[in-house]
Design a protein that fits this description.
Helix content: 40-55%
Distance between the termini: 86 Å
Strand content: 5-15%
Length: about 400
């Protein structure tokens, strides 16, 4: 009888200390350290999350194969309705069972599908604008953010006279379509107009959008941009700003990490972000992607508990302080990094809540908005006008009869 009691107690103890192991697939190497801490502190009672990292280059193809076999329980996915479409088509995901009241509205676009329902939970809100070498511009007497487009261009002229490239650009495909064009629109195009472009109520040949491309054309023609903009790589653009050869770069908040090349080159680098000071004067803010539950997975109920945890303040603070990235959480947080705190304030006060880059209505066929805007920027650097570049976007979208094709023929 004594041995039976000991055996029962041992089983109870084992049951209390053991945890259900589930897998999280991701392309983000940094997720490993985050979830290791969550596991060590047993922040999700009874659940242990194993992180498996897959190369970004093959991630989407790999996931669509393994999801068919019911693996993994959790995975991360690219943002926006166009990215979510293949998951919905194969019923790999289901709408959330709860509201995301704690999530920044600017991040919800990442989790919103073409049916207007929310799937998964966004992570890593990023801010994009003009990343400025603060020490350099202050040394040259530029001590305040520009409050108008005229003042910004006056700064550019001063920098050019001082033989400093005012604004550095790169030529990478993703950079042109997601960073350059979205930063310009967030500053120059009111969010209501951007929403009308998504719905097809406004056209890309309307003066408001042409102004966005004309502004870039004007800066190019005025010599405010680096001459090698259409051959420069992303790392090269950042390096020139870090070395103070250039004053600013179209870039994102991820560059403010202590591990970024800016601090590798200059450990005492100081940055600030400027919005393009136009009619909107906003920063483009978006989520890098979403955590998703595999609806076909064996442990979907367990995975939903993990997903729920990613909406909490506790998770948000771990995300910020372990990864040095701004989480999608919108309520009060205790963030150690001054850089992250500053970015959070800018997202809250000046975040642009519209994303054409992620919009399903503009990206469900080819040539997509993402492709067309990239090519439109290249047209500008080949000598075309903003109007001609805008016409190329409109023509491309009309070719597959997107939502606005009748109105914008």
């Amino acid at each position: 009888m004594k041995y039976i009691i000991i055996l029962i107690l041992s089983c109870i103890a084992f049951s209390a200390t053991s945890a259900q192991h589930i897998d999280l697939y991701t392309w983000r190497v940094q997720e490993g350290a985050l979830w290791q801490k969550i596991n060590q502190q047993k922040l999700i009672p009874g659940i242990h999350v194993n992180v498996k990292v897959i190369s970004f280059d093959t991630y989407q193809q790999h996931m669509q194969l393994v999801l068919q076999n019911g693996r993994p329980a959790l995975f991360q996915w690219a943002p926006g309705a166009a990215a979510l479409a293949p998951l919905l088509q194969h019923t790999f995901i289901e709408p959330n069972e709860y509201q995301l009241n704690n999530i920044n509205p600017s991040a919800l676009t990442a989790a919103t599908a073409s049916d207007a329902k929310i799937y998964g939970v966004p992570f890593a809100v990023q801010l994009e604008g003009l990343l400025v070498n603060k020490k350099l511009v202050n040394k040259l007497g530029i001590n305040q953010r520009p409050t108008s487009l005229t003042q910004l261009e006056s700064y550019f002229s001063q920098l050019k006279r001082d033989q400093i490239t005012p604004l550095h650009m790169a030529s990478d495909d993703w950079y042109l379509s997601q960073v350059v064009i979205e930063v310009l629109m967030a500053g120059l195009l009111p969010a209501q107009k951007a929403a009308q472009l998504i719905s097809g109520e406004s056209c890309f040949t309307d003066p408001d959008f042409i102004h966005v491309l004309d502004t870039l054309s004007h800066w190019h023609q005025s010599g405010y941009l680096n001459k090698n903009a259409m051959t420069e790589g992303y790392q090269g653009a950042g390096t020139n700003v870090a070395l103070a050869n250039s004053a600013s770069v179209f870039d994102g908040g991820w560059r403010t990490s202590p591990n970024s090349l800016f601090y590798e080159i200059d450990p005492n680098f100081e940055f600030e972000f400027w919005a393009i000071p136009g009619k909107s004067n906003k920063f483009y803010a978006f989520a890098d992607g979403t955590y998703q539950v595999n609806a076909r997975g064996r442990y979907s109920d367990t995975a939903k508990r993990v997903l729920k945890f990613t909406t909490t303040q506790q998770f948000a603070e771990l995300f910020a302080n372990e990864l040095n990235e701004l989480p999608a959480y919108s309520k009060h947080m205790n963030i150690k990094s001054k850089n992250l705190t500053a970015l959070a304030e800018l997202v809250s006060s000046q975040g642009y809540g519209v994303s054409l880059f992620s919009a399903a209505s503009l990206n469900t066929s080819e040539p997509s908005y993402q492709t067309l805007t990239r090519d439109a920027i290249r047209l500008i650097f080949s000598g075309k006008t903003g109007k001609q570049a805008a016409q190329s976007i409109q023509k491309g979208l009309n070719s597959w009869q997107y939502v606005g094709h009748k109105h914008c023929a």
